[in-house]
Amino acid sequence: MIQYIIRRLLAAIPTLLVISFVIFAILDLAPSDPTGNLPMTVPPEVREKIRISLGLDQPMYIRYYKWLVQFSVNEPLNILQHSFGVTIGDAENRTRILSWATRSPVIDLIVERTPQTLWVVGLSFLFGILMAIPIGIVQAYRQYSLFDQIGTFVAMLGFSVPTFFTGVVAIILFSVQLKWFPMIYDTTLEITSWDNFVLQIKQMIMPVTVLAFYQASQLSRFMRAAILDNLNLDYVRTARSKGRSENAVLMIHVLRNSLIPIVTLIALGIPTIFGGAIITEQIFRVNGLGQLLIIAIEGADIPTVQTLTFLFAILIVIFNLIADVLYGILDPRIRYD
User: How far apart are the first and last CA of the chain?
Assistant: First the structure.
């Protein structure tokens, strides 16, 4: 297993290099101008000086090389220095990836907004999993029952209706009409008292519920289908014929094999937590990574978009590897040696 993980990590290096170059090239070739948001009264020569100060007068391959060094070498060294106090190299002259819009280090912006995204999107993903697995199991064991039919209808509704619609409906119903929850998520709220903690919970309920409903609707259908596929197999009938209780058959045999496709969906869905729910964050004004990406795209902040997109690619590669390792744990027949 360890050798397999090492091989996959080594194979991921050229894959990520190709991905990083493709991302950089596509965004670099896009018709975007970092000076496009400046007033029309700014003279052309001043605009040209701004482009030169951003390094846009250099060839693309040089800019890509500098960005890659900053991302893969300088930023990790900077994190190592600030987190553990370990200084390697010349820290004062170490260049970092700077946002064109704010002139702040992009990694600092990402670190600043990540907690908000994890609170909202991370909790919604967790609650969605905790709801989907038991619902899918009960639906499979009570196939075509009233519970199964209602669960199927609700799941299809939740999966088909986009989150921007359910989010707006939730705001109109629970914020405008009933006034139960705040309409806009206050990212500046500090939990220093019990009242602030209660307010934090209240403002999280709607965005977390909207996203959890969407996640649970998708996962519950796959969970139901996976359980049904395994219930009729020979090894389940053999376990029952040996006198095993139905709970033992479910937990030891059926559930373990049924979780294999679910693990894939969960592993591929975890990177979206860090990417943020772009639409939902915009609706509830959650100041997370999704909103940061939207602002960067609208403002032609190419370094921020490049860095965020490449981080998402790294997370996808990592969690794909984690999913493959979990396959071997869930199914003893899978061997990587």
Answer: 6
Count of Cβ atoms closer than 10 Å to residue 294 Cβ: 15
Which 3 state secondary structure label does DSSP give 105? strand
Express each pLDDT in 143-181 by its tens digit: 888 888 888 888 888 878 877 788 888 888 888 888 888
| pLDDT 10s digits, 238-268 | 877 877 777 777 777 777 778 777 887 787 7
pLDDT tens sequence across 59-108:
888 888 888 888 888 888 887 777 777 677 666 777 788 888 788 888 88
- Domain ranges (residues) in the chain: 109-330
Q: Which residue is associated with the tokens 């075509």?
A: 144
Alpha carbon separation from 59 to 25, 49, 63, 115, 172 (Å, rounded): 11, 16, 7, 37, 51
Residue 37 confidence (pLDDT): 65
Q: Does domain 109-330 have CATH number 2.60.40.420?
A: no
Contact between 316 and 268 (Cβ < 8 Å): yes
Residue 301 pLDDT class (50, 70, 90 cuts): confident
User: Do the beta carbons of residue 320 and residue 267 sit within 8 Å?
Assistant: yes
Residue 302 contacts residue 97 (beta carbons within 8 Å): no
Residue 196: CA count within 13 A, CB half-sphere: 8
Cα–Cα distance between 95 and 154 in angstroms, integer? 52
HSE (side-chain half, CA atoms, 13 Å) at 56: 19
Residue 109 φ/ψ, nearest 5 degrees = -65, -40
Q: How far apart are CA 74 and CA 298, in angstroms?
A: 27
- What is the separation of C-alpha 309 from the centre of its chain, rounded to a whole number of angstroms? 11
Residue 323 is classified by DSSP as H
Q: What are phi and psi of 105, to 5 degrees?
A: -60, 130
The label of the residue with tokens 């139960």 reads 180
Distance of CA 186 to the CA centre of its chain: 21
